[in-house]
User: Fold these one by one.
Assistant:
Number 1:
Amino acid sequence: MNDKGTEMLCHMLGEERAREVREAWTKLSPDFASLVTNFLAGEIWARPNLDLRTRSLVTIAALAALGRPNGLRLNIEMALNNGATREEIGETLLQMAPYAGFPACWEGLLIADEVFKSRGGGPKA
Amino acid sequence: MNDKGTEMLCHMLGEERAREVREAWTKLSPDFASLVTNFLAGEIWARPNLDLRTRSLVTIAALAALGRPNGLRLNIEMALNNGATREEIGETLLQMAPYAGFPACWEGLLIADEVFKSRGGGPKA
Amino acid sequence: MNDKGTEMLCHMLGEERAREVREAWTKLSPDFASLVTNFLAGEIWARPNLDLRTRSLVTIAALAALGRPNGLRLNIEMALNNGATREEIGETLLQMAPYAGFPACWEGLLIADEVFKSRGGGPKA
Amino acid sequence: MNDKGTEMLCHMLGEERAREVREAWTKLSPDFASLVTNFLAGEIWARPNLDLRTRSLVTIAALAALGRPNGLRLNIEMALNNGATREEIGETLLQMAPYAGFPACWEGLLIADEVFKSRGGGPKA
Amino acid sequence: MNDKGTEMLCHMLGEERAREVREAWTKLSPDFASLVTNFLAGEIWARPNLDLRTRSLVTIAALAALGRPNGLRLNIEMALNNGATREEIGETLLQMAPYAGFPACWEGLLIADEVFKSRGGGPKA
Amino acid sequence: MNDKGTEMLCHMLGEERAREVREAWTKLSPDFASLVTNFLAGEIWARPNLDLRTRSLVTIAALAALGRPNGLRLNIEMALNNGATREEIGETLLQMAPYAGFPACWEGLLIADEVFKSRGGGPKA
């Protein structure tokens, strides 16, 4: 077991949500779960040169542009734990309107809205 | 004429390069040149909620993921003027390897390398 | 407020549906709502050189190719108000089969079918 | 009527499922149904140079990369009838993680899981 | 040999250019050449419900959005023979700025510019 | 150093070409070179469940669909070393015509043709 990857996931998702997500991945495909944990969380997200908040925002930009709903939802959750505000996440998605098209931005905002609502609290950009 | 857009382009590209780029767009399509200057530079890039350096990095992420070589090249140039380091630009592209695929990362690194070389100076991530 | 954008949306969606859509965008993100209304509807859709029916069809083609379900649904609604027939919308989607792949065409036809059914009436291509 | 296309669909989906799928396509668009049957099933899938199992796997790879859920679901069904095992389908999707991004792989695994569950039986990769 | 496809290619490209393009496809892959001629040109482009000019413009929109330079170049050539003006082609590409992103529009305008220049004559949108 | 990754690259590219490619990646970004070698070559390509020939073909399919020219070129080279014939590579690309669009297939065939020509010898599909 790669402790660095598990720790990173807990850090970015909280212990309970990290366990939930990893269990879902493991049911789906144990090999996928271990590649995500060991390589993606343990090696890529642990890299230097970019703080976690910026790393989250660039990932959100790419996933909104590519149209990957599940990965985008999870990365919006992680971004909030990594110190990005709702305004910054909303603004990253707005920046996608002229670069990936307004419809890609719209799809991203709908997913961000779901995540924000599930967490309750104040308004967003 | 939208002064805000022209000013923003000069700020992000330097006066000489901004003039060069705008002239190329104007020759290509005067309407495209004015939409880019007035809307994209003057309205979108002038928005609050995200500093210019982060805005550059999220844009680079999206363009590497989507595979748009000309837009990516220009945004890497602007990112350097917006305060992003070569390390941060390289790291943003590396983050694309697991999110948009290693080949998308590779294409992006080749373009970043061209820009960095044309500016001379030290190594990158 | 940009009257041209609001008028254009009303023209292309009918007053009631335009209000509904704008309210949903405003709840999601007031800034997105105003960019869509002022720039996308008020500036881009108001441009010359292409009639609204053709503009709708080229937009439908792009959104089917890119796989943007919400934007595609709305643009199919607008296309009908812009004078495109069900046959022309269906044919535009069929043209995507060899250019963006049969599965992209299929996803588009499913969305067109939903819109057509919600409006009742006759058959389509 | 193109008998080769109908036969090919029956061969790859079973008679009952082939009829069901063709009826859904015909309701959606008779022209789409006939293009899929005659050209896609009857001409492309009947080509030499690649056995049906490999042809299924390369198609699954492309559709997972492009994010086309309906086409992917159907091709996973067909792959199982074309002799691909659950392990091989799962592995093809895992191979997409570094080439199209982990989130594209995840979306594909979720769809494969639905198909596998609807068929009952043992585990997958 | 499918005469309808060959005729359609000649109609849309002129005899000389059609021969040149077909010879290049045949050298590349005889099977690709025959699928393009018989299915794409002979069946799809020969379909009713959309005039050739509109069919060209929706195809240009999709190929600019997807980033396919060779197919886009050829379709811009064909669009001019199918009755689309330079203004309409330029406007179709501008419409892509908010729907597929400004960088996709830029790439498309660069290719249109090459085609227009190779034909000489007046200005474009 | 990960010997498994280096060995795998040598196995799939030949020693000389593997060294050449790794040196180019290292110059571009030492971190990219090591992620490709250790993770992509050493972990992903070393996985079970899919033979190297099939793994190459599904990768070629995805990269042609996504439009990644450098990754596609390299994977066509590796596919030949992994036991895929020119006919099988050409057929995989033809299968992309109806699934990712004829223009994506065309771009892929052009790249395959370059690789085949650089190796000399007989015809392809």
Number 2:
Amino acid sequence: MSDAPTDAQQACFEAGIKFGSLYHQFAGTPVSPASTDSLETAMAEAIGNQPHCEWVSVDILDDRVADAIDHDEGYAELTGSLMEVEMRIDYEGTAVRTRMTMEEGYPRMRLVAIEN
Amino acid sequence: MSDAPTDAQQACFEAGIKFGSLYHQFAGTPVSPASTDSLETAMAEAIGNQPHCEWVSVDILDDRVADAIDHDEGYAELTGSLMEVEMRIDYEGTAVRTRMTMEEGYPRMRLVAIEN
Amino acid sequence: MSDAPTDAQQACFEAGIKFGSLYHQFAGTPVSPASTDSLETAMAEAIGNQPHCEWVSVDILDDRVADAIDHDEGYAELTGSLMEVEMRIDYEGTAVRTRMTMEEGYPRMRLVAIEN
Amino acid sequence: MSDAPTDAQQACFEAGIKFGSLYHQFAGTPVSPASTDSLETAMAEAIGNQPHCEWVSVDILDDRVADAIDHDEGYAELTGSLMEVEMRIDYEGTAVRTRMTMEEGYPRMRLVAIEN
């Protein structure tokens, strides 16, 4: 059986687009503890430009960045294990809350709740 | 009211992740009519590695690439207006078909159908 | 004839790496006039983390971003025509100044001067 | 003292641009042993589109990709430690050979030789 998508399904689709965009646009960016603040702000504001995006919070974890840095290099490349992300997407009045955190050693993007 | 996500909503979220990933990983890639085939294959196989991705089809349109190329440069940068993408995502038996094509001059990512 | 690279050649190589990195890391980022400031700062600080990079200045041009935005979308994707970049690279005491600006309608990365 | 760049310096600058472009365009791409071939070809052909690029060879190492993959995920994200790259750049008759390989545990981009 095939159905047209509901507003809640559309909202989940839009939420996924934002997560994939944020991750693959910025993965690989050179980052050090001194540059986490500016990168967090830029990532949140960049993805916040996309439609249906109510808010985005990006937390790049200074201590994990510091641990990931080799002495000779002085920077790490941004990857999922160095950050936590939360977003709220609104599609025609249906809101979706999403989150990326580490679970069992891996970054996982999750639908937290659908709110009508 | 807040509900835990259904399988169909999870499938839509996963479908969105794949679209955002594909777009922002590869946007900006130098492309010419001679290199569209290899880029299409690489994009489809790369995103096909992600979980729940049943198949991916990427069509980079040679004629649009040719039109986008300036004589002096010899290549264009990949963007949404130069390609059409279709994907089928399966989450626990619920399948989602999605598509990106041009609509009114802009590339649009769409949920085409949810199949239980 | 083949020679080992001089410090000036190494400096030019490093300068090119920074330009290619900056461009292809951030090309495609969603941008609006309200988010140019945070993106400029993040780009400059990210690339500034790389070795031999003395300073980086990124200017994303609000008026060009505004012109590139379609009413329905509300954002543009970052590309070379929307920004001007200057960098100073130092390799073992040899400095290289570089710049990307528009020339005849296209963004061009240029070596401006080599300073010993 | 400031001098205008020589052809050899320009060639080194162009070589650096290609390396930075290749790295930051494709870092983060989902990759598995089954998809290394298509990604290698696409990377080489994409960067080969850029001016002054005579040839590019990308070798994504299947065994390192396999080692980098977690069982639950089934794929790794492309990064410098998973690949070896060689390029030959020609600028007005001056050729530059460059290479990225692992040195002491880190990927290093190197100028191998300048050939007049």
